[in-house]
Design a protein that fits this description.
Length: 331
C-alpha cells in the first residue's frame, strides 16, 4: 500500500475585512474583549454575492497549479463544509462541474471544524487502497452568512470568519506523506455547538419565521464547555498521532491546530509542555474559519517556509459533534 502525500496547497479568503472595531458598531462588544479571549483582530466575511463554492474553486485552482495537475488528473473530490451553497447537493458537485473534472467520485463531509482532517483521512484511504491516485481535498466555508450578527449572537459572531483551503494529495513514491490519521466523535455533546435548522428533526421548522425569530436557524454554542473539551481533546489526539508513529514532541517541527481560539492553543501548548512557537497561528487575521482553517494555516505555514522536506508535522482539529482528529505527516 502506498501512502498519499500533499503535493499542492492553496487558499482563498473574501476581500471583505471585518475588524473588531467594525463589530463594535453592530453589536455590544469590544476589541479588548475579543482580543483577550480569542486573539482575533480581524476576519473576512463573505458578502452576499460570494458563495462557498467560489472560494473553494479559487483555492482548488491554486492547489492544482502548485501540484502541476490538470482537471484530467483528478479522480476524487472531497469537500468539508457546513455552509454549502445549497442544502443539497454538496460543494463537491459544483467543483466537479466548474473545474471541468471527469465524472469522478465527489462528496461532502459535514464534520464541522474537524472536516478537513476527516476529508484528508478518507482521501488518504482511497489512495492507499488504490481507488484513487490524485485527490482534491477542500475545506470551505461562508458560514458567517448563517450567524446572528446582533448582540444576541455575539459570543459566536466575533469568533468566526470565512475562507477556503485546498490540498492535492497523490500517491507517494518515497518515504514522505501522510503517516497516519485519527478520527473521533462524541455525539452526546452535540448541542454544545450546533445549528438546529434547517433540519428534519420533529419540531424543527424549515424556513419557518417563528424558528428564525427564536434564533433556531443560527449556530448556538456553550462556549465554556466547548473550551473545556477542546483543551482536553487537542493534546490527546496530537499524542495519539505521535504514539502511532513512534514520534516524540522533539521530532515534531510544527503543529497546525484548527484555529479555534488563541487561548485554546495557549492552553494546549501549556498542557503539552511546549512553546507557542510550535503551534502555528494565523487566527488574528482570519478568526475561526471552521473546515477551512487547517488548510489555510497549512498553506500559509508552507508559504512562509516553516515546513521543509523531511519535517514531521501534525494537523489537529476539534469542533462540533464533538469531533476531533489528527494527521501525522512527513513532508
Ligand atoms: N463581547 C462582549 N461580551 C461578550 C461577548 C462578546 N462578543 N460574548 C459573550 N459576552 C459576554 C457574555 O454575555 C457573558 O456576560 P455575563 O457574564 O454578563 O453573562 C460574558 O461575556 C462571558 O465572559 P467570560 O466568562 O469571560 O467568557 P469566557 O471566558 O467563557 O469566553 C468564549 C467566552 C466564547 C470566548 C470562550 O468560552 C471560548 O473561547 N470558548 C470556545 C469557543 C470556540 O473556540 N468554539 C469553536 C470551537 S471549534
Amino acid at each position: 500500500m502506498h501512502k498519499s502525500k500533499i503535493t499542492g496547497l492553496g487558499f482563498e479568503v473574501p476581500e471583505n475585512v471585518v475588524k473588531n472595531a467594525d463589530l463594535e458598531e453592530i453589536m455590544e462588544t469590544s476589541d479588548e474583549w475579543i482580543q483577550t479571549r480569542s486573539g482575533i483582530k480581524e476576519r473576512r466575511w463573505a458578502t452576499e454575492d460570494l458563495a462557498t463554492s467560489d472560494l473553494a474553486i479559487s483555492a482548488s485552482k491554486k492547489a492544482m497549479e502548485m501540484a502541476g495537475v490538470s482537471s484530467e488528473d483528478i479522480d476524487l473530490v472531497i469537500v468539508g463544509t457546513l455552509s454549502s451553497d445549497y442544502f443539497f447537493p454538496g460543494v463537491s458537485a459544483q467543483l466537479q462541474d466548474k473545474l471541468n473534472l471527469r465524472n469522478i467520485a465527489a462528496f461532502d463531509i459535514k464534520a464541522a471544524c474537524s472536516a478537513f482532517v476527516y476529508c484528508l483521512s478518507v482521501g488518504d484511504q482511497f489512495i492507499r487502497s488504490g481507488m484513487a491516485k490524485t485527490a482534491l481535498i477542500v475545506g470551505a466555508e461562508t458560514q458567517t452568512k448563517l450567524i446572528d450578527k446582533t448582540t444576541r449572537g455575539r459570543d459566536i459572531a466575533v469568533l468566526f470568519g470565512d475562507g477556503a483551503g485546498a490540498a492535492i494529495i497523490q500517491t507517494s513514491d518515497d518515504d514522505s506523506g501522510i503517516l497516519s490519521t485519527h478520527l473521533h466523535c462524541q455525539g452526546k455533546d452535540m448541542k454544545n455547538l450546533w445549528m438546529e435548522g434547517p433540519g428534519s428533526a420533529p419540531g424543527v421548522w424549515i424556513h419557518n419565521k417563528q424558528a428564525i425569530a427564536h434564533g433556531r436557524l443560527s449556530p448556538k454554542m456553550n462556549g465554556r464547555e466547548v473550551f473545556r473539551n477542546a483543551v482536553k481533546r487537542f493534546p490527546e489526539v496530537i499524542q495519539e498521532a505521535m504514539d502511532e508513529n513512534g514520534l516524540t514532541m522533539e521530532d515534531i517541527k510544527l503543529i497546525i491546530p484548527h484555529q479555534a481560539n488563541n487561548r485554546i492553543s495557549q492552553a494546549v501548548a501549556k498542557r503539552m509542555g511546549i512553546g507557542m512557537d510550535r503551534l502555528y497561528s494565523n487566527i488574528h487575521k482570519y478568526g475561526n474559519t471552521t473546515a477551512a482553517s487547517i488548510p489555510i494555516a497549512l498553506t500559509e505555514a508552507h508559504q512562509e517556509g516553516k515546513i521543509q522536506k523531511g519535517d514531521h508535522i501534525i494537523l489537529a482539529a476539534f469542533g462540533a459533534g464533538y469531533t476531533w482528529a489528527s494527521a501525522a505527516i512527513r513532508w
